[in-house]
Amino acid sequence: MQHTDSTWRDARTRTRDTLDRLARERDIWVSTAHPDYGPHQVPLWFWWDGEAVWMCTAERTVTARNARAEPRVRLALPDTADVVLLHGDAQCHGAHDVPRQAGDGFAAKFGWDPRREESPHVYLRVRPTKVLAWRGEPEHRGRVVLRAGEWLGL
């Protein structure tokens, strides 16, 4: 989604727009870091359950390894004109241990069910503790829409 409107939005509108994007978008950038090897960033498909972002990756990826070693992650929706950044801790769930609702929700959204793959996969669940959202310079002030796990403006 490419958004070019840089009109200032109040906290309620900005929060509502952010929640709408989380519900409908497909891709999210995942940034992890390993204590010895440093940062790593990849795009993954995601499903938003209303509280947390669920992503899936093969068990042996750098992303999975990093999330286990250092669970603090950053996520970003892929539009620099309509920025949404999420901070949180990743919880890893094996494909056979993922809650049914999350596995079913992810599979329904993408038409692909990692639980049925021969190679092992890991679901990453990130419940945001902080979310920032802005469209251009006018919205730099007040860009925090979620703080300490609480949505602002709702």
Helix and strand pattern: HEEEHEEHEEE
Percent helix range: 10-25%
Major beta sheet summary: 6 strands, antiparallel, barrel
Number of domains: 1
Low-confidence stretches: none
How much strand content do the residues show?
Answer: 35-45%
* Whole-angstrom Rg: 16 Å
Give the spatial strand order of the biggest sheet: 1-2-3-6-5-4
Supply the CATH superfamily name: Electron Transport, Fmn-binding Protein, Chain A
Task: Using the coordinates above, name the CATH class.
Answer: Mainly Beta
Shape: globular
Decide which structural class fits the backbone.
alpha+beta
Q: Which fold does the CATH topology refer to?
A: Pnp Oxidase, Chain A
Task: Calculate the terminal CA-CA distance, rounded to whole Å.
Answer: 24 Å
Q: How many helical stretches? A: 3
Mean pLDDT over all positions: 94
Q: Based on the structure given, which CATH architecture is correct?
A: Roll
Q: Based on DSSP secondary structure assignment, what is the total number of beta strands?
A: 8
